[in-house]
Amino acid sequence: MASLDDIDFESSIYMMTEDMLRSIMNHLNLRELQSLATTSKELSGPAIEIIQTRVLKHDTGIKSVAFSPDGIMLATGAMDGMVRLWNVAKRCIVTHLQKSKNSINAVAFSPDGTCLAAGGDDNIVRLWSVESQELLQTLNAHDQWVSSIAWSEGLLATASDDKRVFLWMEKEEEKGKEWIIKKTILHHDGASSVALYKNKKNENEWQIATAGFDDPTVKIWTLAKEVLSIFSSPIKLKSYNMVLAFNSEGDLLAVGGNHLTVFQMNSLVQQQLEGHTNTVLGVAFNPTDPNLLASCSYDKTVRIWKRSANQSWSCSGVLTGHTKCVVSIAFSPDGKLLASGSLDGTVRL
C-alpha cells in the first residue's frame, strides 16, 4: 500500500448535507482559494463552504470513477490503461488491478462490493475480486470499445461502440459461477451509455435505459423474469453522445449530452437544465436524496442541481478547479462525498 508521502495530491472533496451543499476544496495557494470563494458567493441557493483537504492526482486523464458500496474505496479507470483502488479516508492507493495499453472507460462495483468490473478500448470487460485482486472472469463479447458499465443486484449491463448493450446474469457452471449474456439490446449507432434501476417491490424486474453516440434517442426497457419488453417509445432528443442515470427511486432519469435533461418516468415529462456551456459528460443522482443531481461537463465544471417541491430544477452550486473537461462523477453511498474525474489527471472527491 502506498503511503501518503508517495502520492501527488492536488484538490478537493465535495461534501453534501441534507439542507446545505458543501463544496470542500483544497488548493495549493491562497490566491486560488480566494478566487473560488468569490465564485461561490456569486451563486444563488445554498451557501458553499471551503474546507481544506487533499485529493489524488494521476499521471494521465481519468475516464471513470466509482465508489464501493460501503464507501471505503474508490475505483478509477484512466487513459493509461490502469485500474486503481484507493482508500477514501486515507487518500492512498490500495492496489493496481490492471495495466494495459488501452484506456479504461468504465468501472463499476458489484452491489455487494466483492467484485469490480472494468472495460475500455480493448473491447473487453474484466471482473476482478476486490479482496484478492484476482481476475475472476473476462467478458469478450463486444467487438468494439466498451463505453459504459452498470451493475445492479442480479444484473450486469455493458454498452459498446459495436451498437450493442449486453445484459448479463450469473449462472452456476461446473467450474463455478459465471456471468453469461441473457439479452442483447441493439442500437442504430454505437451505444454510449446504459443505466439500471432495480424495482424495489419486485426483485426480478429492472428498468434499463440505453443511449447512443450519434443516435439522438433514449430507449427505455423493462426486464421482468428474463423477458425484455419496451417500457416506452424511443425518446428523441436534440442531443448526442448521451450519458444516463436513474435516481434511487427510479422515478427520474437524467440524460446528459449536448443538453442536460431530466425525465419523470411515470409521464416522461422532461425539463431541460440550463447552465453548462458545453457537452455534459457525466450525470449522477445522490443515493440518499433522489431530488439532488450532479453533472459534469466539457466546460471543466461540476454543477449541483436541486428539485423543489413544485418539481422544478435549479442549480445550487458550481464546482470549479479542474483544468480540463470533467468526464465522470459519482456520489458516495451515504451521499456526503462527490468524486469527479477529469482529463487533467485529477480525481476530486
Describe the structure.
With 349 residues, this protein is mostly beta strands. It has one helix and 31 strands. The strands form seven sheets. Strands 1, 2, 3, 29, 30 and 31 form a six-stranded antiparallel sheet that branches. Strands 16, 17, 18, 19 and 20 form a five-stranded antiparallel sheet that branches. The chain has a four-stranded antiparallel sheet with strand order 4-5-6-7, with no helix packed on it. The two termini are 20 Å apart. The relative contact order is 0.14.
Record the SSE blueprint:
Layout: E1 13-16, E2 21-24, H1 30-41, E3 56-57, E4 62-67, E5 73-78, E6 82-87, E7 92-99, E8 104-109, E9 115-120, E10 125-129, E11 135-139, E12 146-152, E13 155-160, E14 164-173, E15 176-186, E16 191-198, E17 205-212, E18 217-224, E19 227-230, E20 235-236, E21 243-246, E22 252-256, E23 260-264, E24 270-273, E25 280-286, E26 289-297, E27 302-307, E28 313-319, E29 326-331, E30 337-342, E31 346-348
Antiparallel strand pairs: 1-2, 1-30, 3-31, 4-5, 5-6, 6-7, 8-9, 9-10, 10-11, 12-13, 13-14, 14-15, 16-17, 17-18, 18-19, 18-20, 21-22, 22-23, 23-24, 25-26, 26-27, 27-28, 29-30, 30-31
Notable features of this structure?
349 residues; mainly beta; five-stranded antiparallel sheet; 3% helix; globular; disordered N terminus
Brief summary of the model shown:
With 349 residues, the protein is mostly beta strands.
What structural class should be given to the helix and strand makeup?
Answer: mainly beta
* Main sheet characteristics: 6 strands, antiparallel
Whole-number mean pLDDT: 85
Q: How many beta strands in the DSSP annotation? A: 31
Shape: globular
Rg calc: 19 Å
Summed up, the helix count is: 1
The helix content, as a percent range, equals: under 10%
Beta-strand content bin: over 45%
Give the terminus-to-terminus CA distance: 20 Å
Low-confidence stretches: 1-53
